[in-house]
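Researcher: Batch entry, complex prediction.
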Amino acid sequence: GQSLEQPSEVTAVEGAIVQINCTYQTSGFYGLSWYQQHDGGAPTFLSYNALDGLEETGRFSSFLSRSDSYGYLLLQELQMKDSASYFCAVLNSGYSTLTFGKGTMLLVSP
Amino acid sequence: GAGVSQSPSNKVTEKGKDVELRCDPISGHTALYWYRQSLGQGLEFLIYFQGNSAPDKSGLPSDRFSAERTGGSVSTLTIQRTQQEDSAVYLCASSPPGAQNVYEQYFGPGTRLTVT
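Model: Structure tokens for the complex:
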């Protein structure tokens, strides 16, 4: 089976940089995705890593190390609107479904 | 274009009643997923459709839960004899054709189900 571990909550201040970690245990690895979900809203896709290294999309970057079964989401120049829950998810064998972590609630304060 | 839509947005039902939740995926998206999210929790996978067939039903929690998809489009999740533990937000997602697109799913706003 698949299991993912993320911190339950992270706090930071506006303008700062924050890193949200995700470790996974999977039978085979096919890719790691990140999603953002504002309170009461729908999850929205942020990024995807299939290979080791850093993927950058504006203020958000995602990193993967397959040898360490570890990834992280890096948010720079934090804004109040970044307060949300962030989920990592692994792609399952067969490339058909995702298994999500329990999510990390990010609280950005002024 | 239109995103994934779900109806109803909220549903309150009495324990023991049946409910039907509807999902309209993005046009042209062949894959459709149902998830359940309890308060403050992650997304629990329920079922996956590719076209009208369901290759993976492994997440359905009991035989009270069933789902179907018709015309490669609309899907209905049915919960029979609802129980209080069924209370949650039920989310639907879809993704475009191609295995490489599974990692990027487009979610609907969800149906908040409350069983009293």
